[in-house]
Protein: 2TM domain-containing protein
Organism: Maribacter algicola
Amino acid sequence: MEDSLKQSEKYKKAQRQVRQIKKFYGHLRVYIIINALLIMVKLNLFNWFKGEYDWMQDPNFSGWVSWNVIGTPVLWGIGLLGHAIYVFRFKSKSWEELKPTFIKNWEKRQLEKFLKEDNKD
């Protein structure tokens, strides 16, 4: 009875860890998408804005966009780094372990990994 309770607690701990890793990868995806859009705006890739709107010609707006293209990735990146440190706690040995894999068995492999770690303790 006690062994099954201990296994259940380990399983729940492993599930929590997998959920946190999934949340981190979601955070990373949003970071990449938003910052790519900011770079596109800065590089004037949205030319359809230029001629039609006076606010695009405003130097204050241009300054705000310039600050955001530099400031947002840096400040948000610091937060993302903190998130990564919290989630992975420096347990991973290589970048390959940190790379997201988008296949169905990913969660199962992660759960098994954390269960093995807990069984060693």
User: Anything to note?
Assistant: The chain has one domain: 2-120. The longest helix spans residues 2-42.
